[in-house]
């Protein structure tokens, strides 16, 4: 599967700077693990860095695009948990991602991810 969205291409290449360059400075990031959105490229950069260290065997498996919305399907492991998810990227007029929503399944995978990220961030 070939990912074409610049964010996905950069993630697959391990190029954090290029991935972050696709995000609006005011990007809003929503996660299934927390009720409140994260806002700003710097905040999202720190979170994505931790998540990137947490995932094992991360890979995009498919991509779907309609207008300014791209959905990148992924699979990964967190410890012994296999998970599937989607990155939903919604672009603004300038082509930068303004809304970034992540969804993860199954619940046990989401819980493993949330726990591992919280541990890395030192959150009880």
Quote the average pLDDT: 93
Q: Which CATH class is shown?
A: Alpha Beta
The H/E string reads HHEEHEEEEH
Whole-number radius of gyration? 14 Å
Shape: globular
Total number of helical segments? 4
- How many β strands by DSSP? 6
The major pleated sheet works out as: 6 strands, mixed
Give the percentage of residues in beta strands.
35-45%
- How many angstroms separate the termini? 38 Å
Poorly predicted tracts of residues: none
Assign the structural class, choosing from mainly alpha, mainly beta, alpha/beta, alpha+beta, or little secondary structure. Answer: alpha+beta
| CATH fold topology | Nuclear Transport Factor 2, Chain: A
Helix content: 25-40%
User: In the CATH classification, which architecture applies?
Assistant: Roll
The number of domains: 1
- Across the major sheet, the strand order is 2-1-6-5-4-3
Characterization of the model:
The structure is a single chain. The protein is of the alpha+beta class and 124 residues long. It has four helices and six strands; from the N terminus they run H-H-E-E-H-E-E-E-E-H. The chain has a single domain, classed as Nuclear Transport Factor 2, Chain: A, CATH 3.10.450.50. Helix content is 35%, strand content 41%. A hairpin with a 2-residue loop joins strand 3 and strand 4 (69-78).
Please give a handful of descriptors for the protein shown.
35% helix; 4 helices; single chain; six-stranded mixed β-sheet; 124 residues; alpha+beta; Nuclear Transport Factor 2, Chain: A
